[in-house]
Amino acid sequence: MVLHLLNKSSIVNNCELESGDLMEPLLKKDQQVLLTIKRLGINGEGIGYYKKQAVFVPGVLPPEEAIVRITEVTERYSRGEMVKLNIKAKKRVKPFCKHFDECGGCQIQHIAYTEQLS
Fold first, then answer.
1. Is residue 93 a contact partner of residue 111, using CB atoms and an 8 Å limit?
2. Degrees (nearest 5) of the Cα angle 86, 64, 40?
3. CB-based contact 88:81 (threshold 8 Å)
4. What's the CA gap between 33 and 53, in Å, rounded?
5. What whole-number distance in Å separates Cα of residue 13 and Cα of residue 23?
6. 15 has which bridge partners?
7. What pLDDT is recorded for position 21?
8. What mean pLDDT do residues 43-66 have?
């Protein structure tokens, strides 16, 4: 296997690119993708993967499946927002705070309390 290092530490397998070329990002801003959320991030956001690239999505829980609109793309990860929740987790509950979606101060209120403790 041939590995070529590109600027900004990008690695490409079996490709012959000029030294200054960068790969096209896997995702593009405003693209919509179907993701299965695999785990929670340290800030309570759901983390799904698109072709091995992490996508952080607030308000979505493992193992939920959602249509996600990409809002930010970097070399190592992307961020998105939920457009539609296709498969809902059993541990999802209605947040008791009416400002849950607005203020961001209680990121995991949509998870059942017993699940938050585990």
1. yes
2. 145
3. no
4. 12
5. 11
6. none
7. 53
8. 95
Structure tokens, 62: 């493992």
Residue 15: pLDDT band by 50, 70, 90 thresholds? very low
Instruction: Identify the pLDDT of residue 11.
Output: 36
Which position has the higher pLDDT, 99 or 4?
99
Q: Please tell me the pTM assigned to this model.
A: 0.76
Say which amino acid occupies 65.
Answer: E
Instruction: Judge residue 51's burial from the number of C-beta atoms within 10 Å of its C-beta, 0-12 exposed, 13-18 middle, 19 or more buried.
Output: exposed
Backbone phi, psi, residue 75, to 5°: -65, -35
Residue in 51, 105, 111, 59 with CA at minimum distance from that of residue 81 = 59
DSSP summary character for residue 98: T
Q: CA–CA distance from 57 to each of 10, 22, 86 (Å)?
A: 24, 26, 14
25: pLDDT confidence band, cut at 50, 70 and 90? confident
Q: How far apart are CA 43 and CA 28, in angstroms?
A: 24
Distance CA 79, CA 46 (A): 10
Question: For the domain 24-117, what is the CATH superfamily, name and number?
Answer: Nucleic acid-binding proteins (2.40.50.140)
